[in-house]
Amino acid sequence: MAKKAHNRYEKKVEQKPALSQNKILVIGAPVVAVIVIVGVLFGMGIVHLPSGGSPSTSFSAPNQIPYGPPFTEVSATDYAPAHTYSIYFISWIGCPIGASLSWGIYGSIKAYYSSVQNDVYGHYSSPDEGALKNIPGLIFTTGFSFSAKGYTYTFSPFYMYNETMTGTYPSNTPIPSSQLVSTGESEINASGLPSAITALAYKYTAVVPTNQGKPSAYLGNPAHVNTVLIITGPSGTWMLNGPYFDPTYLLSYTYQYLQSNYNGVQPIVNEMSAINSQLNL
Fold first, then answer.
1. pTM recorded for the entire structure
2. Taking the CA of residue 156 as centre, how many other CA atoms within 13 Å lie in the half-sphere pointing to its CB?
């Protein structure tokens, strides 16, 4: 801070007698007590400020979001519990984008939580997806949590449509193709995921346009809610809307091969690096 310049025109202020040491001690004791109490509450995680410990005063919600990389900050608020990163993977069973993104998620988590291998099964994208059919991927069967680097990490997957996007998952209730967006959003809202997260998923797939001119839910044919990865924690809330890389890059691989060799496929390595950066791993 710059030192205040002396102003020779300032009025002289009459100096008052200094407080005695006893009075200073009496006044100082409550202040010290408050500082100690607040410090203890922070240490216990009872007091929890979002976005790395302080609210953002400069964040402005984006009025456009990329379809694909990079991760975009969609809220300055930390919606996770204290000392926690929460990961939300919203997709559908036959989605080629979900298939390609599953490897980066799997690789990032497996380095710190090897049991994730018991919470997935191999799969291929829907045969109805044209050039994007038969993309190898993983389906996550459950949510879980693990600890690493002083933080707790929680992972919550949700699949809204079935293999061919003709019904909900897992109930397989038929969906007219003209209602895929509204039904997908209804399924997400009923998923049990936090309302703040489902609201962001709706906003940035069905309302806010992408860099391709319209919301991502309306880029596909038929229009449908697309795969997103949302990460919330001490750095705020960030979203990857769509694929991190072209899923067709994986067409020459089987999911059996990738489960053991994902670390040798460069697009997956890049995807893992981007996810790790968001997770402070």
1. 0.80
2. 16
